[in-house]
Write the structure tokens for this entry.
Amino acid sequence: MKIKDIVNRDIVNLTNCEQEPIHIPGSIQPHGFLLGLQQDTLVIDYCSANSAEYINLFHSELLGKSFESVFGVDATQKLKDYVANELMLSSSLLKLTLAGVDFLCTLHNSGGIYILEAEPESMQHKQASEVYDQTAQFLAYMHDTHTLKELCQLITKGTRDITGYDRVMVYRFDKDYNGEVFAECCREDLEPFLGLHYPHTDIPPQARELYMRNLLRLITDIDYTPVPIYTIDNAEGKNLDLSLAILRSTSPIHVQYLHNMGVGATLTISLIYKKKLWGLIACHHYSPKNLSPEVRLAAQLQGHFITSQIDLRQASEEYELARKTTQALESMNGYGLNRESDLQILADSHDILQLCNAAGVSISFNGQVYKCGLTPSDEEINQLGSWLATFSNNSSFHTDKLIDYFPEAKDMCSNTSGIIYHSLDVESGNCIIWYRPETHTEVNWAGDPTRAIIKDQKGLSPRNSFKLWKELLECISKPWLQPELNTASSYAYSLQRQINLLIISQEEERYRKLSELLHQTNSELENINWISTHDLQEPLRKIQLIASRILGKDEEMSNNVLDSIKRMNASANRMQTLLVDILKYTRLKHTDDSFEQVDLNRLFEEVKLDMAETIAEKSAIVLADNLPTVHGIPFLLKQLFANLIGNSIKYTEPGTNPQVKITPDHILTPYNADSTDLYQVIYVADNGIGFEQHFAESIFNIFTRLHSAPELKGSGVGLALCKKIMQNHDGYIKATSELGTGTVMSLYFPVKT
């Protein structure tokens, strides 16, 4: 049988320490020995090299043998019962007699291997009753504390009383895992570490990850010599995960770090809050020191106490803060926003600052800035708001150190180191911003954090100077707490709704004023129209009457005079026709006649009868082909078809008999490709002079005439009138034509369901 050790011999320094596999060192500390048993057979597959120091059996004598064959039936049965009762997951210790020696053991499963760690029971330790009394006393004291800091201070005293370490600290991490000594109890002759900060590099990420898995870590003697672990060499790369092992050997980098601090022994207990490493109970002794397993468990219980209380105490503090901010939120929601000037009233309210315990606030709306308290200038607010809108994509943003994101804010950080920003829309730049001023903070570091790594003749190594080093933090505000962020967000949402209502109200007011102006303008236009269509009729009639009388006299007149009088009479007639058409057009939009089902065949016959004289005079042929019934106003439809037929007859080449054909489309069709509504289409086609197709839209504009020949009389109102009639019927009219080939007018009547 071939045996090998599994010691990790990779060279570790500060250039690669963050990748150091500290969970598989392949060695242990010497204050106990380790066995690795195969889960199914309990065959000893791993053994530490120091087994003979405790049980007079070398690792070479143990490897490959079953646990029972070496230690007997009783020990094996106790081991199996311990596993069967799931005591591995509890704080109960396994007491075993191995080769005639009594041990207190811990047992856990690591990848199908039971790791048994044995420590001699005869080691000096406190009586269980003494540990219980100290723990009970601690619980009594704990109920008398009110703040988390007081509780942590009590933890350090209670832990030191139980363990006897020279120094006990509660070490708290910030968001970047820089550490702070939050509470401390130490020997009177020692220099206190309370309030000192340590850079995140002192505890690398993989170490923090291990603290999350293994809640208790013990080093009994910093100067220990690691004990290698041996195994049967029957697989390539064979190794053993010691993440949960009490005896696991420590990283040489960490050992050197502790040497530099002058520490002789340590105990570390993890404090977990909301599934994150909140901090540590760190115990230091300045000479070698071991603890019995019972005392370790009692110390670990302190960690459980503080972990449970962190949530309770911080929740209580957050509740009180949330209660005050919510009260301010309820007060602010009681303010109404009826006009834009009310925004200054909101900004001046004391409660708007209490929402998130800010020192200043600004509301930007429609290019105006409404502000109160400690704020930047209006120009700086506009500049900041523009940047924040782009940076946050018109959403929200908060920070306690604005210059990390917006270096241009350096000049205004005295008032604006911390901000909470919420956009109030996605386009116009309206927003609300709360401000906190700069808080000058002096941080005491245990050594210069920028020199956490030093270079000497041995290469890179952890710092060996822990001399007090002070750093003044500038352009940073007091951090925003979650209840403050929540109420600020809630109010911003409420303000956004109020502003939207204000904008709607402003739009309604603007439309109301426009409507009044339009109504007034229409009234004035109606007055002008009345003058045009009535007051101007009388002078025209007089002109026509005088012209007729002159032309009816037998007196001889020169040709020039006679021609002038005829042209004057023709102009008066044209003007009268124009005034009549304008009157028809303006009256059209005011009709109150109700809609009804109109038989277009019957209506067509009435139009032909009314136009019989014109049709006969031009020898026109006007036909209709089985027209449908449509929903409309009879007299308007009659006027529509009369205008279209009249235009077709009027605009015909001289010497050509006009032909007008009115036919329906028997398939209901949409007006265009984008329309889903169906229409009944009726075509009015003629053989007239036509026009170029690019005029197809403009011919429906009022006063538009494409043909200026004097014999083609018209006011340019007729087709505009036709379009207006179709609009009144929720329909459309289109023209299709070419010069010399006639015109087709398409009438789209909506199908009423």
